[in-house]
């Protein structure tokens, strides 16, 4: 029987995303054949309008390739192609007992395309038997399976078989069957109920037993692995009809890992017309204990089974819908299970089965396209094939076939939709006599398949739907970074998580982890509740790094991670590649001691590896270390420092001295004398500022590797003096002058921006110049100062003669009165008129003259106080406004006879203490301060004759 029920699980979007069995990679594990040879061919198709190549491999060696595109499916081998392509049966059928229960590397197929495509392996035995194995793509590989087969009623040429093929090297597979139920294997006699093997990529291990060796006990055998595997299981051949033997058929399909399973299923009855043979129904295999099985919404379970146990649902559970002969069945379970639909045609010799995908709102909305849907290898007989469609209630469904020109066709009322007993969510269709290249469209979740056959074979198969439960798979790579994870494309939304925490920005169907950890992804489709995938564990790659160190002798290497936060574990440190020119020894504390060979100088390389202390996701790093061994050689350098004329010593930075050309950091200590170095005394504590007038200091150098060298540094001070010609200058306040630092310097930098030795036209102010000599820089400040103005400190007036007294400024002085046209050297002015006069003075700088305005009073030389109102008194009240005005009269003996003040209004009538004084000559002086800034003091002296009548 040839199973060819194709189910497409393709979530459809306008960008034509890829789901389920349409994939870029496909695997077919071999199976054990107990009958005659089969003719097998690969059928490949795609919805890609652009042609692309599909390469076909066995045992990692390419055996062929085809170019496919939409409307242009291909088969391999193609009998019309010359030269003839290799036959496939030897790559998928094991026919000798020595190929069972042993590791083989000559069988199994792997297909790789640049774009997603469907792939099925279709086999016939002349016109007697037929079957289709539909690849589930990456949805069909995983780490835990429960083997399927059918219980046979014809044991003559029947068997059970499960072929296991590894997709990666070093894959450990453990097979466990029920210890209470004995199983006999071809070419195998295990002592217990488990068998463990280790397979490399493309290697296979085939389990098989004859029809009379407890097939029923083998169904539900658990197959687990540490890396993804693919499993092909069933009977080659078998017969599960109720009426006993009338022949057999090939019953085979690709298994699906437990991660892809579900608990609700819909089946449409196939074409069996032998109802008494019970050729239809289902095999249900539990993956968990206490699993209840229900049909058609009936509340009472048919049975309850445990993990690894199985139950056959009879054909009688199909429910007739409508009047056209359409029958369907709804299966639900309390826990996830494997379901194989049993199919047949007109006799118990036309048996077959196919894996049924679980129902889910994560099913696709489009299936495009299945190529040559009604074709079987070398079969020219009439094939009766029926397309079955399961979709959500209320959906709009169309299909296209190349046989009708690819025009979308809406199913007739007789073809559906039909209700599904026990579910209000799903409905079914069946479309007879389907042919050509087929695509199905729906505006809701949909799955589809075919079943049928010819007069001596029955078959069916699902081509899609096995990714409806989102699951993370590895796209490329083995570890992080470099590995790329993916879930099926086409869902509405994605969010990736690392260790339960959101990865910001990781919202597509692929993700490239940078670190190891537990990865999950939450996906959303339509109105379905978001679901989160099972954990996918990613381990970090061994980080490859290169490092370089230098030494002059033995060196200790401390393994440290370049980027990981884990702590290296000492016991994990190993030398993977030893050095050539020395030895590398791992110490108990995890450090590595490298010792170069005696007298070796140059590069040596060794490789070491170490790992961290994480409990699960351990980081490891492998370091390729280049060690450069260089002898420690010393220099005797000379360094200089600036010795300024204001300091007795220069300040030397000893660390700038190149005492060695050793390429790596060294430890240096400095000493003022050779004896101090030898005795390790008086170490210079601040070598960056060492004061010295010249001489030597001594240095001890310790290099990586423990080498020690000594040397000395010559200290040469560079004398730097201030410019002797750059001195302060004095100018008038509005004057200009030049400043000259003189020759003998390498550069000049004035605060004015000038870079010449002198600057011109500078006013009063402070100026700075940086003088460079032999790379020493000296800052010198100079002032241009305002000259001190002369000050008229006093003016003495005697009669009509004034003497101007000057202090300050710079002699000689020039004098002028009542104008600055005529100047004189003398400070005495004669023949002055009475009244106001302005006196001017300038000094040797000839700046703007200073001036003082004074009053030359009217001098009276005689009074006759006789009461005739003529010359009766001397009156200086008109000077009362002058500041600090004093008026004093003395007799010839110097006795004060009168003092003028504001009380007597500075007027004297020739009396002293109210009495007339003796006629005679008296002397007087008048003092005041002029109302200018300087408060110039004025002194006026004279004599007066007083005539008193006796």
UniProtKB/TrEMBL annotation:
- Give the IgGFc-binding protein N-terminal domain ranges: 141-452
What does the UniProt keyword field contain?
Signal
Q: Name one Pfam family in it.
A: IgGFc_binding
Q: Where is the signal peptide?
A: 1-20
Q: Is Protein biosynthesis there in the keyword field? A: no
UniProt-recorded name of the protein: IgGFc-binding protein N-terminal domain-containing protein
């Amino acid at each position: 029987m040839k199973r060819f029920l194709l189910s497409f699980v393709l979530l459809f979007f306008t960008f034509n995303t890829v789901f389920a069995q349409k994939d870029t990679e496909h695997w077919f594990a071999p199976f054990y054949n107990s009958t005659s040879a089969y003719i097998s061919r690969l059928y490949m198709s795609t919805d890609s309008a652009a042609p692309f190549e599909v390469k076909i491999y066995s045992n990692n060696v390419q055996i062929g390739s085809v170019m496919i595109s939409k409307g242009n499916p291909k088969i391999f081998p193609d009998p019309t192609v010359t030269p003839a392509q290799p036959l496939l049966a030897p790559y998928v059928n094991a026919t000798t007992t020595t190929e069972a229960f042993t590791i083989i590397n000559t069988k199994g197929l792997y297909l790789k395309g640049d774009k997603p495509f469907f792939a099925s392996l279709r086999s016939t035995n002349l016109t007697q038997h037929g079957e289709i194995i539909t690849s589930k793509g990456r949805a069909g590989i995983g780490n835990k399976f429960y083997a399927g087969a059918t219980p046979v009623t014809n044991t003559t040429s029947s068997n059970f078989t499960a072929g296991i093929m590894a997709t990666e090297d070093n894959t450990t597979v453990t097979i466990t069957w029920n210890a209470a139920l004995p199983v006999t294997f071809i070419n195998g006699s295990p002592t217990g109920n488990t068998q463990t093997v280790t397979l490399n990529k493309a290697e296979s291990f085939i389990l098989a037993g004859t029809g009379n060796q407890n097939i029923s006990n083998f169904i539900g055998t658990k197959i687990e692995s540490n890396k993804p595997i693919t499993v092909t299981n069933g009977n080659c051949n078998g017969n599960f009809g109720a009426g006993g033997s009338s022949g057999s058929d090939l019953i085979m399909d690709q298994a699906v890992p437990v991660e892809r399973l579900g608990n609700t299923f819909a089946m449409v009855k196939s074409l069996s017309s032998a109802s008494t043979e019970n050729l239809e129904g289902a095999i249900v295999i539990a993956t968990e204990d206490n699993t209840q099985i229900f049909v058609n919404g009936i509340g009472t379970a048919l049975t309850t089974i445990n993990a690894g146990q199985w139950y056959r649902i009879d054909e009688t559970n199909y429910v007739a819908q409508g009047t056209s002969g359409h029958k369907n069945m709804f299966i639900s379970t309390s826990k996830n299970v494997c379901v194989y639909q049993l199919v047949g045609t007109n006799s118990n010799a036309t048996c077959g089965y196919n894996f049924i995908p679980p129902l889910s709102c994560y099913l696709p909305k489009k299936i495009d396209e299945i190529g040559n849907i009604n074709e079987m290898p070398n079969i020219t007989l009439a094939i009766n094939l029926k397309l079955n469609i399961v979709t959500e209630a209320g959906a709009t469904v169309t299909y296209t076939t190349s046989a009708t020109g690819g025009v979308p066709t809406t199913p007739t009322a007789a073809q559906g939709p039909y209700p599904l007993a026990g579910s209000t969510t799903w409905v079914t269709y069946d479309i007879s006599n389907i042919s050509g290249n087929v695509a199905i469209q729906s505006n809701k979740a949909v799955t589809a398949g075919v079943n049928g056959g010819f007069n001596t074979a029955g078959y069916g198969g699902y081509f899609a739907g096995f990714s409806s439960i989102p699951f993370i798979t590895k796209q490329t790579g083995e570890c992080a970074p470099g590995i790329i994870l993916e879930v099926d494309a086409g869902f509405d939304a994605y969010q990736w998580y690392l260790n339960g925490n959101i990865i910001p920005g990781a919202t597509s169907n692929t993700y490239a982890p940078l670190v190891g950890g537990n990865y999950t992804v939450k996906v959303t489709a339509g109105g379905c509740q978001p679901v989160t995938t099972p954990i996918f564990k990613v381990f970090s790659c061994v980080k490859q790094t290169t490092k370089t160190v230098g030494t002059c002798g033995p060196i200790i290497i401390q393994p440290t991670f370049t980027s990981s936060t884990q702590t290296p574990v000492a016991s994990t440190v190993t030398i993977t590649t030893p050095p050539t020119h020395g030895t590398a020894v791992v110490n108990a504390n995890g450090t590595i001691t490298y010792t170069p060979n005696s007298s070796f100088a140059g590069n040596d390389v060794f490789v070491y590896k170490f790992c961290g202390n994480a409990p699960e996701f351990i980081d490891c790093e492998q370091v390729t270390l280049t060690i450069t061994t260089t002898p420690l050689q010393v220099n005797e350098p000379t360094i200089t420092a600036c010795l300024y004329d204001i300091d007795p010593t220069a300040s030397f930075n000893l660390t700038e001295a190149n005492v060695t050309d050793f390429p790596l950091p060294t430890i240096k200590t400095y000493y003022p004398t050779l004896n101090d170095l030898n005795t390790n005394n008086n170490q210079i504590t601040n070598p960056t500022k060492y004061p010295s007038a010249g001489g030597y200091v001594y240095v001890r150098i310790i290099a990586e590797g423990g080498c020690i060298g000594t040397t000395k540094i010559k200290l040469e001070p560079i004398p730097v003096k201030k410019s002797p010609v750059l001195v302060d200058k004095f100018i008038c306040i509005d004057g200009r002058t030049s400043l000259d630092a003189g020759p003998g310097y390498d550069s000049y930098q004035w605060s004015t921006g000038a870079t010449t030795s002198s600057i011109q036209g500078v006013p009063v102010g402070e100026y700075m110049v940086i003088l460079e000599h032999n790379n020493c820089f000296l800052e010198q400040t100079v002032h241009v100062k305002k000259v001190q103005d002369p000050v008229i400190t006093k003016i003495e007036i005697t009669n009509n003669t004034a003497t101007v007294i000057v202090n300050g400024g710079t002699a000689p002085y020039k004098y002028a009165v009542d104008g600055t046209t005529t100047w004189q050297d003398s400070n005495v002015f004669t023949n002055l008129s009475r009244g106001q006069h302005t006196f001017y003075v300038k000094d040797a700088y000839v700046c703007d003259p200073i001036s003082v305005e004074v009053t030359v009073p009217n001098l009276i030389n005689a009074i006759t106080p006789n009461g005739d109102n003529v010359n009766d008194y001397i009156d200086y009240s008109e000077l009362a406004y002058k500041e600090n005005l004093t008026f004093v009269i003395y007799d010839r003996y110097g006795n004060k006879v009168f003092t003028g003040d504001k009380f007597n209004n500075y007027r004297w009538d020739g009396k002293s203490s109210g009495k007339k004084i003796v006629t005679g000559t008296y002397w007087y002086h008048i003092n005041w301060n002029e109302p200018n800034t300087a408060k110039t003091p004025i002194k006026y002296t004279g004599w007066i004759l007083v005539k008193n009548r006796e």
